[in-house]
């Protein structure tokens, strides 16, 4: 079942094309990474998928299918989210709980099941013991893990993650990749993750999409290396 479908996408900032002729899809149950050198327009591409930016040509769609009578739900983590400033007042628990409210827009008050989800999400990223700490007091890697817990608490069908492991140590990264693989293979989630960590993640993923410089363009423009879509 296709969760994301990008067809013949070309995107311009101002006069210059930065992405050209992009085609790929992400199915349910797949853990796929998107790589490319710095400035290869990886974030630009996922912003097109999310509808934050709009292609000049072609289409970028998230599936309109309904799952179990609910619309497909998307969890997105933008780049550098862990740079919440030191004054950010909410506790770790509150921020993760806010993901739970997002999960069910009819929710009025958190119930026992919601609290169980929040606890599980925080345990998953080894941050349960920090639940009463203020976000601003945490290190960059800890903030990043709390943001991941917020997404897990929301329990989306499709994860779109922009360099989510920035600031995390090697063990935490491996645990996180294993968890994403489990979400994809056991719970049929779709996962598209931008990363520079392609060596460590390679044993967990199903496919690797790479953006490469277009040699025949006068601009600094990127396209897909079809050989790299395994
Ligand atoms: N709002 C904008 N207006 C004009 N140019 C932009 C804008 N945002 C990004 N760019 C340019 O588009 C190109 C792609 O940027 P983008 O952030 O998508 O790349 P990236 O592959 O995600 O980079 P990185 O790996 O460094 O995070 C870069 O040259 C960047 O300077």
UniProtKB/TrEMBL annotation:
Q: What is its EC number?
A: 3.6.3.-
Q: Which controlled-vocabulary keywords does the entry list?
A: ATP-binding, Hydrolase, Nucleotide-binding, Transport
A GO molecular function term, named singly, is: ATP hydrolysis activity
S-adenosyl-L-methionine in keyword set: no
Top-level lineage group: Bacteria
Q: Which PROSITE patterns does UniProt cross-reference here?
A: ABC_TRANSPORTER_1, ABC_TRANSPORTER_2
Say if the entry is tagged with keyword Transport. yes
Coiled-coil region(s) at which residues? Answer: none
> Which InterPro entries is this protein grouped with?
AAA+_ATPase (IPR003593), ABC_transporter-like_ATP-bd (IPR003439), ABC_transporter-like_CS (IPR017871), Metal_Ion_Import_ABC (IPR050153), P-loop_NTPase (IPR027417)
Q: What is this protein called?
A: Zinc ABC transporter ATP-binding protein
